[in-house]
């Protein structure tokens, strides 16, 4: 069904990137005797979050990254979480710290993210890293937007001078995505919940990047012929996973399109592995 020629295959690019990261980890292990360490903290029992975290652990183990997961109960206090982060900040063998989102309502997300040492912030969510990204300085970049860039790059889709329309303005995907595209010299439009005529904007796009979480938000008539369509949405139907794009119909018009699953999702994990290696090299390489 999705073996079409215009597919942006995140699954295979992610595999390639993980392979390269694995090689480099082996080399560094041989030459310097050090191994990257990734610590993931998850608070609460949400099944989807648990599944993502297991995926991250599995990927890390396969690449020779020492990974550790802290599974904390829903009732964990903010203070307890902050103390754990401080301890991990000071642990030499921990290169990356990731606090799985969302967090329970009684915990201040911003406070927790900014407690992570910026050099161990493999999500790229820390205020300092977000600021550096904004200023186009070298830093750890958010895994999903970074993965989207890599995916476009792998198909030689240049962003320079293109009109990139980002749908969704979240701190973790939409906003950094738009900023990275701007840094690549794209002309950017950010659409969000208060945008009046979404279709008007998406129809202008050379590249549409959607990260909202709404089934069939992007339909055929909203897309210009030959546009590149990147679907970051993940929606669970009873029997399957779908994105935010009406894939069946939009894929007939798009020159390139990501499937869900097998598009951006695997790239997020691959870039997390890449960031963990990078964080190690920067801090103790
Ligand atoms: N601090 C933090 N960092 C994150 O990076 C983060 C997070 N919190 N909270 C949740 C979201 C979601 N996320 C995904 C990762 C991989 C897939 C992925 O591998 N998806 C596969 C299939 C997944 C499946 O089958 O369930 C695919 O699209 O092909 C999806 C989603 C990372 N997130």
Structure description:
The protein has helices at 10-32, 47-62, 78-89, 109-115, 127-134, 143-154, 174-183, 198-202, 247-250, 264-284, and strands at residues 37-43, 66-72, 96-99, 163-167, 187-191, 207-210, 228-231, 235-236, 241-242, 256-257. With 285 residues, the protein is α/β, with parallel strands linked by helices. The chain has two domains: 33-117, Leucine Dehydrogenase, chain A, domain 1 (Rossmann fold, 3-Layer(aba) Sandwich), CATH 3.40.50.10860; 143-264, 3-Layer(aba) Sandwich (Rossmann fold). The strands form three sheets. It has a five-stranded parallel beta sheet. It has a three-stranded parallel beta sheet with strand order 2-1-3, with helices on both faces. Strands 8-9 form a two-stranded antiparallel sheet. α1 (10-32) runs parallel beside α10, α6 packs across α7 (174-183) and α6 crosses α10 (264-284). The longest helix has 23 residues, at 10-32. It is globular and about 50 Å long. The mean pLDDT is 97. 5,10-Methenyltetrahydrofolate is lined by residues 51-52, 55, 98-101, 123, 143, 234, 241, 260-262, 265-266, 268-269.
């Amino acid at each position: 069904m999705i073996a079409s020629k215009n597919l942006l295959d995140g699954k295979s690019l992610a595999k390639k990137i993980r392979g390269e990261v694995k090689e480099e980890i082996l080399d560094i292990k041989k030459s310097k005797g050090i191994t990257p360490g990734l610590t993931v903290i998850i608070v609460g029992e949400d099944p989807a979050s648990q599944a993502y975290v297991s995926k991250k652990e599995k990927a890390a183990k396969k690449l020779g990254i020492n990974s550790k997961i802290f599974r904390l109960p829903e009732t964990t206090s903010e203070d307890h979480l902050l103390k754990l982060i401080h301890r991990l900040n000071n642990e030499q063998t921990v290169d990356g710290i990731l606090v799985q989102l969302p967090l329970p309502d009684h915990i201040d997300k911003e406070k927790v993210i900014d407690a992570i040492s910026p050099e161990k912030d493999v999500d790229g969510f820390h205020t300092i890293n977000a600021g550096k990204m904004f200023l186009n300085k070298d830093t750890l970049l958010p895994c999903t937007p970074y993965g989207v860039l890599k995916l476009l790059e792998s198909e030689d889709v240049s962003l320079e001078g293109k009109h990139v329309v980002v749908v969704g303005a979240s701190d973790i995907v939409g906003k950094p995505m738009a900023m990275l595209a701007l840094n690549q010299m794209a002309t950017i439009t950010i659409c969000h919940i208060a945008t009046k005529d979404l279709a008007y904007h998406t129809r202008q796009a050379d590249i549409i990047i959607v990260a909202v979480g709404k089934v069939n938000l992007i339909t055929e008539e909203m897309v210009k012929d030959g546009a590149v369509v990147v679907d970051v949405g993940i929606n669970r139907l009873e029997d399957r996973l779908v994105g935010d794009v009406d894939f069946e119909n939009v894929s007939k018009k798009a020159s390139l399109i990501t499937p869900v699953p097998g598009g951006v999702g695997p790239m997020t994990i691959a870039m997390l592995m890449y960031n963990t290696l990078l964080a190690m090299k920067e801090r103790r390489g």
